[in-house]
Amino acid sequence: MAHVLIVDDDAETREALAAAVGEDGLTTAQAGDLREARIQLIRQMPDVVFTDLTLPDGSGTDLFQDLDLRWGVELVVITGHATVETAVDALRNGAIDYLVKPINLQRVKAILNSLPRAGDLKAEIGTLRGELRSMGRFGLMLGNSPVMQDVYDQISRVAPTPASVMLVGESGTGKEVAAQTIHQLSLRRKHEFLAVNCGAISPNLIESEMFGHERGSFTGADRQHKGYFERANGGTLFLDEITEMPIELQVKLLRVLETGLFMRVGTTKEIETDVRLIAATNRDPEQAVAEGKLRLDLYHRLNVFPINLPPLRERGKDVELLAQAFLDELNERNGTKKLFLPGVREMLAAYPWHGNVRELRNYVQRAHIMSGNEGELMAAVPVQISMAGRDLDHKVIIRFGTTLADADRKLIEATMAEYGGVKARAAEVLGISVKTLNTRLMKYGVIAG
Q1: Of 9, 201, 383, 427, whose Cβ has the fewest other Cβ atoms within 10 Å?
Q2: pLDDT at residue number 17
């Protein structure tokens, strides 16, 4: 049962609010000033706080620093002076809404009904499980195989809690979609969800991107910049490819997790933040620790609740379900009515899908483009993917006299074909960065410059 704290020096206001809240089946506690309010916070952390802005011993906004936002505490301020300034200041400080005296009790009920509560989340998760049985959907995720059912069970358990989550799975298995689903089923869902690819940011800029910087802190810093931790305050931060984060920055990340404090580049002023972290990697995290790619102490902080996302080849009929969903999306977007032929479905089921869901989506899009207008989606696809099956141990033959440039091109093209055009995987196998791979592909005319 949700708990509400009412802070106001007027007893009649407190009693009227308590009566309105009680009608919704919520428990209440009351306080006449900040001192009493802080005592109540120690006794029981509320789900919602209604507080007057003007109290005998300070401002109601002083309670912001005492509230445990990690558990989704929401604050509504009360003011007797209906000015734009007081409302805006309260909202800037983190309030979700404000009430003007005399208080409209119908407005109070509307606010309470709009707030996420743990019980609401459980009910919503139950609804999602119903959709899963009927349509194969769970939030933003699609699939009904036994291995995905296990994933949904784990997400259902961890999403309403404040626990950090570590998502482990091959490239293209849908780690970001899983992270978004966790966020949407959490008490933080009214706040920001920000995704950061730690492997796609220059090592020279990643600290600035994560924590922000002050104007003039380095060459080119012509304005103040708020980093991901500041912008995601109250919400969820998704750190993809966490093992690609420089070790020296991992130390600073660990400190933020432990203290909730960070500093923008170019200043010594500490800023408080409250984010839920969801990390992801396509590598074995314990192996990354052994190789010195991931700090052991940071791994333990992030790995509170690990979830393994299965590769598409282990998901059985989910391949057909996903392919049809992608085709339906393309048909709706383009005003077409293209269909899969039975032979295509069989090839989809037989293919190993090294690039997982991402590769499947790309295949369906290419096939949709290349098919005719007769209303049937044919199996004609670019040479990078052959649905007839292939030898996974195939060789690239380089004849004597071939230039190094031609040999390099053949090797890159063959690797890209092997991994379904997934650049991250191809670059990893070739031992080069994705940036270098893109440069080579543009040089060889494989992609546009």
Answers
A1: 383
A2: 92
Closest by CA position to 392, among listed 424, 429, 433, 367: 429
CATH of the domain at 404: 1.10.10.60
User: If residue 29 lies in a helix (H) or strand (E), which one and from where to where?
Assistant: strand 27-31
Q: What is the pLDDT of residue 122?
A: 62
- C-alpha distances in angstroms, 442 versus 194, 366, 430? 30, 20, 17
Residues 241, 128, single domain; the answer is yes
8 Å CB contact between 193 and 180: yes
Least Cα distance to 312 among 300, 301, 320 occurs for 320
Residue 131 lies in a domain: yes
- Full 3-state SS string of 376-431: EECCCCCCCCCCCCCCCCCCCCCCCCCCHHHHHHHHHHHHHHHCCCCHHHHHHHHC
Are residues 259 and 243 located together in one domain of the fold? yes
Domain extent for 396? 391-449
Residues 158 and 295 in one domain: yes
Q: How many domains would you assign to the chain?
A: 4
| Confidence (pLDDT) at 117 | 61
Same domain for 72 and 156, yes or no, is no
Q: Which residues, including other chains, have CB under 8 Å from residue 280's CB and lie 6 or more apart? A: 166, 167, 168, 169, 175, 176, 179, 238, 239, 240, 241, 242
Does 209 share its domain with 295?
A: yes
Could you report the per-residue pLDDT of 382-406, keeping only the tens digit for each?
A: 334 444 334 444 566 667 677 887 8
Number of H helices, E strands in the chain: 18, 18
The per-residue pLDDT for range 53-107, each reduced to its tens digit, is 889 998 888 887 777 544 457 888 888 755 556 666 667 666 777 788 888 888 8
Under DSSP, the state recorded for 103 is P
100, 115, 130: which is the final residue of a domain?
A: 115
CA distance 63 to 278: 28
What is the residue type of 364?
A: V
Asked, for residue 383, whether it belongs to a domain, the answer is no
Predicted TM-score (pTM) of the model is 0.62
Distance CA 249, CA 256 (A): 11
Whole-number pLDDT of residue 374: 53
On whether both 40 and 180 belong to a single domain, the answer is: no
Pick from 226, 229, 227: nearest CA to 273: 229
Q: Using 50 as the pLDDT threshold, list the residues of the chain that sit under it.
A: 69-71, 378-393, 449
Determine the straight-line distance between the first and last CA of the chain, rounded to whole angstroms. Answer: 58
For tokens 């490819």, what's the residue?
241
Are 167 and 180 members of one domain?
A: yes
Q: Are 216 and 329 within one domain?
A: no
Q: Measured in whole angstroms, how far is the alpha carbon of residue 381 from the centre of its chain?
A: 32
If residue 278 lies in a helix (H) or strand (E), which one and from where to where?
A: strand 276-281
